[in-house]
């Protein structure tokens, strides 16, 4: 798992948007309240988490970026570990999550 910053994710969204999948790993209720526009929701607590991600991503070599609520949230590191254990090779964790992403937008 590789950490990724807000600026790195922003660049990926602008230049590689078809080359990676951005996944919010929080429960659906949290996703519905706030999420990064280009992300999909696959809750890490779902017992079929890995299978669902595999179906969406298609290739375990494709870049996958997971995120949760903020730097204190442990859902995205858990999700990243599960994906790596399942054989995904390019897993990134946006540790700042939704809070960091929207703080940047408010500051702009």
Protein described:
The chain starts with a strand and ends with a helix. By secondary structure, it is an alpha/beta fold. It has a five-stranded parallel beta sheet, with helices on both faces. The protein is 44% helix and 17% strand. The chain has one domain (2-107): Rhodanese-like domain (Oxidized Rhodanese, domain 1, 3-Layer(aba) Sandwich), CATH 3.40.250.10. The chain is built from five helices and five strands. The chain is globular. The mean pLDDT is 94. The longest helix has 11 residues, at 75-85.
Summarize the helices and strands and which ones pair or pack:
Elements: E1 2-3, H1 6-15, E2 20-24, H2 28-33, E3 40-41, H3 49-57, E4 63-67, H4 75-85, E5 91-94, H5 97-107
Parallel strand pairs: 1-5, 2-3, 2-4, 4-5
């Amino acid at each position: 798992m590789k950490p990724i910053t807000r600026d790195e994710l922003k660049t990926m969204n602008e230049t590689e948007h078809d080359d990676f999948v951005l996944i919010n790993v929080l429960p659906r209720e949290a996703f519905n309240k706030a999420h990064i526009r280009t992300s999909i929701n696959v809750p890490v607590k779902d017992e079929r988490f890995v299978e669902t991600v595999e179906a969406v991503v298609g290739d375990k070599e494709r870049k996958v970026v997971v995120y949760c609520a903020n730097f204190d949230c442990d859902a995205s590191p858990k999700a990243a570990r599960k994906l790596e254990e399942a054989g995904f090779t390019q897993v990134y964790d946006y540790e700042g999550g939704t809070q960091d992403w929207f703080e940047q937008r408010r500051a702009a």
